């Protein structure tokens, strides 16, 4: 028997390694979710063919018609020309670039389903502002600290996208022009290149190749296997290279957040993402350095995201509301 309840919504959160799907009922209750591997070797057409197939599978398994679907919201780790729903470039999925994702998926699903596409930091900002740690704040900055860093900007209770749609790519603001390790953005010296999860690992590996000693090699088993978890664990064992890495991350995160505060005068920062698992040894110094830079006694709030692993699919679904 067909499910005739109106206004189901699908939220999709695309990451560099996993893509999460969520099905929500008319009251925004999450009634189904799953995660599938993300194939970073696919181009835009092949990738969104897979997205369409997975949407159809969810609808079939829950006996839902297209006519009972409010729409599909998708968060991507991409520069997205919001008005057109066009993916301009995606650092973690480099073959998905200059692709008209919204119009392609719209046609692929029969031409009658509303499709909304936005940057994943934007969707997460919507989720946390409406349903999580940012509730009650007129202005809010959602700052994911994970494989990369960026910002979802809420001003006057509305998501700010800028002219083309990629406002908030603040991790790619330049700190040391032409210096350091090249980032996926194509530049050297951006803030993300010094303090994101992916980039700090590159710094550590480079230091090891330069002759620095570390217990991380024994912990990981090989140079290539070192990751952020090993950096965090080695820090707790007073490993000098890990201490250097955490200190560098804290320094550039503090500069990043202070620059945002100086530019926008928004005093609510909601932090999310995998680097929160490093805990106080990273974020206590970040807050301390921020306070050292900020010569003002007015309150600034640093809050942890509240929605857990579901923030991406919740925020993607919120694009339809």
UniProtKB/TrEMBL annotation:
Top-level taxon of origin: Bacteria
One Pfam family hit: ROK
Gene3D superfamilies according to UniProt: 3.30.420.40
Family to which the UniProt record says this protein belongs: Belongs to the ROK (NagC/XylR) family.
Name of the protein this chain belongs to: ROK family protein
């Amino acid at each position: 028997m067909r499910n005739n309840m109106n206004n189901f919504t699908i939220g999709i959160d695309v990451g560099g390694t996993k893509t999460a799907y969520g099905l929500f009922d008319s009251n925004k209750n999450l009634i189904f979710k799953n995660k599938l591997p993300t194939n970073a070797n696919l181009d835009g057409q092949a990738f969104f063919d897979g997205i369409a197939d997975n949407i159809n599978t969810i609808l079939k398994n829950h006996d839902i018609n297209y006519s009972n679907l409010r729409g599909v919201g998708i968060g991507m780790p991409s520069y997205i020309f919001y008005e057109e729903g066009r993916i301009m470039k995606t650092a973690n999925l480099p073959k998905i670039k200059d692709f008209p994702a919204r119009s392609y998926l719209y046609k692929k699903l029969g031409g009658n389903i509303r499709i909304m596409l936005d940057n994943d930091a934007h969707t997460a900002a919507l989720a946390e502002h409406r349903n999580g740690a940012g509730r009650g704040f007129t202005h809010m900055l959602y700052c994911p600290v994970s494989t990369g860093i960026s910002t979802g900007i809420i001003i006057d209770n509305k998501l700010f996208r800028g002219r083309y749609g990629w406002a908030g790519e603040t991790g790619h603001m330049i700190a040391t022009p032409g210096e350091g390790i090249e980032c996926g953005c194509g530049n050297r010296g951006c803030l993300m290149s010094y303090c994101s999860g992916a980039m700090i690992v590159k710094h550590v590996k480079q230091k090891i190749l330069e002759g620095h000693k570390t217990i991380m090699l024994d912990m990981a088993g090989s140079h290539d296997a070192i990751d952020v978890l090993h950096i965090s664990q080695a820090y707790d064992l007073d490993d000098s290279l890990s201490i250097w890495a955490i200190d560098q991350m804290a320094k550039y995160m503090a500069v990043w957040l202070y620059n945002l505060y100086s530019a926008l005068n928004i005093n609510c920062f909601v932090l999310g993402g995998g680097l929160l698992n490093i805990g106080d040894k990273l974020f206590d110094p970040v807050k301390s350095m921020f306070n050292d830079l900020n010569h003002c006694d007015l309150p600034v709030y640093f809050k942890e995201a509240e929605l857990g692993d579901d923030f991406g699919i919740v925020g993607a679904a919120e694009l339809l509301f």
